[in-house]
Amino acid sequence: xxxxxxxxxxxxxxxxxxxxxxxxxxxxxxxxxxxxxxxxxxxxxxxxxxxxxxxxxxxxxxxxxxxxxxxxxxxxxxxxxxxxxxxxxxxxxxxxxxxxxxxxxxxxxxxxxxxxxxxxxxxxxxxxxxxxxxxxxxxxxxxxxxxxxxxxxxxxxxxxxxxxxxxxxxxxxxxxxxxxxxxxxxxxxxxxxxxxxxxxxxxxxxxxxxxxxxxxxxxxxxxxxxxxxxxxxxxxxxxxxxxxxxxxxxxxxxxxxxxxxxxxxxxxxxxxxxxxxxxxxxxxxxxxxxxxxxxxxxxxxxxxxxxxxxxxxxxxxxxxxxxxxxxxxxxxxxxxxxxxxxxxxxxxxxxxxxxxxxxxxxxxxxxxxxxxxxxxxxxxxxxxxxxxxxxxxxxxxxxxxxxxxxxxxxxxxxxxxx
Length: 418
What we know:
This protein is of the alpha+beta class.
């Protein structure tokens, strides 16, 4: 993990001459009033380490006859210089060999020297950067796509379920109607069967009457037809027995049913429609509940995925493609929280880069500043920051482009250089 041991800057932007040996872990605060050259120091470091794309548009200090001069010594022994008329880069390794920007790029994280680029990125890009760091970006993207698909599907199903339920509620239902439709043909068949049976009964009765009449006729001629009478009496006895249990059935109810069948069937159909509507509504509700369960399972899996990830800061997470810190989205975080989150993520992006440049720490009160410094020390992170202040928390004070020695009494006070 590479850090800055010391730096010397001359004639860059508003800096006339500044020497600084940042503390290895924690905060090194460059203090001073506005317009004195504090930010120029950070811009100079970014130019020296990040290449000419970070070169200030007016790098040469106005009024100076000497060109910019940058000298940075890293704790891995590398020396970086930019001096001379063209401020060309010179990188010398501990063995004395020359190197170039490619070597610096191998361990200098772009966001470390250009933190505003991360802070000003949109919420989605910040979240993607974090997911890239912890290595769950693709898995989380798949889960979020599944969640969105299930959510949209559930929304559609829920709308249909509500429509079906409302439609079912508006349907008429007849409690006195049978469950199944009444068949006219079946009623007519039953009627014809009864009529046929009754016809047979009538035929048998007629036969009985004929035999009785014949008996009467034979009675008048009994003397002449004694033998015949005996035969007829036997037949009559048999006929009487066969008609003894005969009973005619009424078709009145069937005739009424036939007359009312269409009215009955209207009620049956209405009831069937209502039952079907209720069944449809319940079916869609069951689908909705099932999708809700699937969405909850996906969300639980997302939570577990992030819980098991190596996050750069406790309380940091991603939900619905946005960065969250202690449950708050980026625009609801305080300036101090945004800076802490940004620093933690950038710190994790490239573990080989042990320093971060931070401008405008005046947004931190002293208590928050102390906590920030303690966190940086715990992370073994070197933070070189500016602050509009001339207080004891500052490591050096910049006045009119020059660095001033901090009074001894102030030096003995803790400087947030943990």
